[in-house]
Amino acid sequence: MAIVSLAGVTKTYPPTTRGGAVVTAVDDVTLDIERGDVFGIIGYSGAGKSTLVRLINALEPASAGSITVDGTDITRLSERALRSLRTGIGMIFQQFNLFSSKTVKANIAYPMRLAGWSRADIDARVEELLSFVGLADKAKAYPEQLSGGQKQRVGIARALATRPAILLADEATSALDPQTTHEVLALLKRVNEEQGVTIVVITHEMDVIQTIATKVAVMEHGRVIEQGDVFDVFSRPQNPASQRFVGTVVKGVPSPAETAALRERHDGRLVTFSFRDGVSSQAQVFVDLAEAGLDFELVYGGINDIRGRAFGHLTLALRGEDAAIDRALDRIRVQVEVTEITAEGEVH
Ligand code: ADP
After folding, report:
1. Residue nearest to atom 20 of ligand 1 (CA)
2. How does pLDDT run across 264-295, given as a tens digit for each residue?
3. Within 10 Å of residue 15's Cβ, how many Cβ atoms?
4. What per-residue confidence (pLDDT) applies to 297?
5. What is the pLDDT of residue 17?
6. Closest-lying ligand 1 atom to the alpha carbon of residue 23
7. Ligand 1 pocket, 15 CB below 6 A?
8. Is there an atom of ligand 1 within 6 Å of 47 CB?
9. 46 C-beta closer than 6 A to ligand 1
């Protein structure tokens, strides 16, 4: 069952300048986040991702549509009920948002104090959380004494303090270097797998989605333009905007500049073969091309792994009679996605 469900959700803001236009930050969004998902929301800056999170968190009301969190329609709740709902949702941020004048322990204890926990319960929980995030020796440290990765670990511990069912991560790794990003993502994966917390990850970084998300929604201009399993969206994006995004992180897809360089360097027709799951179809491509008597050269390629499933793209320069190439491609198309890169663009 969905833990977060949005149906026809729109959020508009009044014009920011006199005579300006109304801003539609989120536009008719419908999506379900299942319990236990790591759900990625991706899109360029200004796509509406943060607004969507503020709606889920009930920090702002939607202008239209309904939002259900853990079985409750939050568009109809009193402010008091909303406050209690928010304790069931943890949140981490790009800039960590720690209290600089409080120790690590006091930062993590803060939401428990707000919720009225006893000192003994708070102490026990803080100890448990510090050990879970690998900072058992930092209880008395102040945020300024910590690295970025350590600060975000404290942020995660604080967000989990009152045992929320949902964790919202808004660009939580965008201020971190690649190695630290990797460590924080590994921790979030443990939060999901060991604690059963549903995680919603907002990011403009496709590789974050590739590393930990199970599902993804791609946003553009306030709309969700594509959603589904990460493997499906990454290995076969349908929408041109998601193809652009995915192309920036997926291995084996030449950029327009690289395509131009390939065309300079190699004679023949440039054709990309896209494979999903399994190598037998790859071998068959080479067999079919050889049997057709074509001369071929591998000019670009890469294999990707998403949570243990592989897909890849190989670009070959094919030389021979046009009709013979067409016949061979038709045969291959039955098993494998074939995209010819012509001077005018891609032909499927
Ligand atoms: P993202 O998180 O994908 O970068 P945002 O949700 O922050 O996108 O913003 C989506 C759009 O809504 C942008 O055009 C932004 O300028 C606008 N917007 C966001 N918050 C407000 C606000 N409080 N008032 C007016 N416009 C806003």
Report:
1. 51
2. 999 999 999 998 876 567 888 999 999 999 99
3. 11
4. 94
5. 86
6. 26
7. no
8. yes
9. yes
Q: Where are the domains of the chain?
A: 2-246, 256-341
Residues of the chain with confidence (pLDDT) below 50: none
Q: From CA 216, how far away is CA 202, in angstroms rounded?
A: 10
Which fold would CATH assign to domain 256-341?
Alpha-Beta Plaits (3.30.70)
Question: What pLDDT sits at residue 279?
Answer: 58
Task: Measure 217 CA to ligand 1 centroid, in angstroms.
Answer: 18
Residue 144 vs residues 140, 141, 176: alpha-carbon distances, Å: 12, 8, 15
Tokens of 274: 């896209």
| Residue 280: predicted pLDDT | 66
Q: Which tokens is 56 given?
A: 């889920």
17 pocket-lining for ligand 1 (C-beta < 6 Å): no
What is the model's pTM? 0.87
Of residues 241, 249, 211, the one with CA closest to residue 223: 241
**Residue 35, SS3 per DSSP:** coil
Q: Which two tokens stand for residue 239?
A: 């929408």
What pLDDT, on the 0 to 100 scale, is given for residue 233?
93
Q: Return the CATH class of domain 2-246.
A: alpha beta
Q: Ligand 1 within 6 A of 13 CB?
A: yes
16 lines ligand 1 (CB under 6 A): yes
**256-341 matches 2-246 in CATH topology:** no
